[in-house]
Amino acid sequence: MATFMDIHHGMRDITSDQLRQAHDADRAIEGQENVTFQHAWADPASGDVFCLSEAPSAEAVQRVHERAGHRADEIHPIPFSV
User: Domains of the chain by range and CATH?
Assistant: First the structure.
């Protein structure tokens, strides 16, 4: 499995409850694509939301996000971390 960081733009003024609902929507269907969403962060001032996941591909991550109703604007592989 690979690790990915995806970014959603345009979610200005998102609340912690809205972030939780979006994350829960992803988690509810992630198994359909063999994706595991690990964590989500939001910056309400900029409107950016960041999601960390493990998945077989960036396309699998996008398919889950699309079905959950919030398509990612960017998906970046994370080759390694410390």
Answer: 2-77 (3.30.70.3090)
